[in-house]
């Protein structure tokens, strides 16, 4: 075995392992980027199509009770009243103090331009690309990366990539860093020593690994990558055994939020990660609270860990599309159109449900089945970035979200 393994070879092999890991449902990616601002932006992608009508329940709409036979509906069923018309799902009760402090708000009846086919894959791609259609030239980049491309001198966080490629949201020409904590590996002492040898002469890479080790509580992922990089080495199966298993979900999202907050307190100004579990075709009363618990934990952990920096932070939680207004035969909801987004942080003008409510009578529905979108979800993201960073409107409408008309300022930031 040669001990002079190059950093290029190491990174090449690590990238191969990362591509394989990207297909694993056990991994939760987090992407970060540094920028010359003091304000922080966190974008959370809610994968699986969150039912906004169950999360922010329009119990004041006279048509609503007849559309949801078994699902929670308003304060009488345990939801928390927000404003006399909308109520918050009980599973988000831990966030209610943020609503009272005006650090939490919601937007209803929003969507991307995606319509009718209701595919999770296409819907998520369009949400993260930020374009009007799939397959456009701009769609090869994510909208957060295009935002960074418009800022001269943007630099990535310390150069590391553990277990997963960047989310499409932050994919593109602008440099970003990537980290994922959710794989646990069992390593022999020989494997640990090999990792130390590989990274010994590269301070940048060695320090990045040490930081990742401290944050994830494990040396295992990077050392396994190092072993994969050694050409012609025999007996590797004896050096380490992979014990790939998901950590407890609550712990996983807590780690992600803690890591995000630590980086935001340092040089990072933009972060993005995803939370799954929103595809509630069956037994929504069981499934949705679990996903909402993840979202609640992420936001509360961000607030606690950020400390004073919470006042400079905006959190946007977005989903690919909503769900049908009518409950289905398996006590769930199917893929729909209009949905809701969540706003949180010390910069948010919370305590309000934003958006133009279209109504839930059959004539008011999209295709007589879905909540009618009344505004593009990208417009709210655009106004948030304009308010945080002062971007010219033309940059947002032409470069970040090509072809989008931002419309009037909804006033979501303080």
UniProtKB/TrEMBL annotation:
<dbReference type="InterPro" id="IPR019546">
    <property type="entry name" value="TAT_signal_bac_arc"/>
</dbReference>
<dbReference type="InterPro" id="IPR010869">
    <property type="entry name" value="DUF1501"/>
</dbReference>
<feature type="signal peptide">
    <location>
        <begin position="1"/>
        <end position="34"/>
    </location>
</feature>
<dbReference type="InterPro" id="IPR006311">
    <property type="entry name" value="TAT_signal"/>
</dbReference>
<keyword id="KW-0732">Signal</keyword>
<dbReference type="Pfam" id="PF07394">
    <property type="entry name" value="DUF1501"/>
</dbReference>
<protein>
    <recommendedName>
        <fullName>Twin-arginine translocation pathway signal</fullName>
    </recommendedName>
</protein>
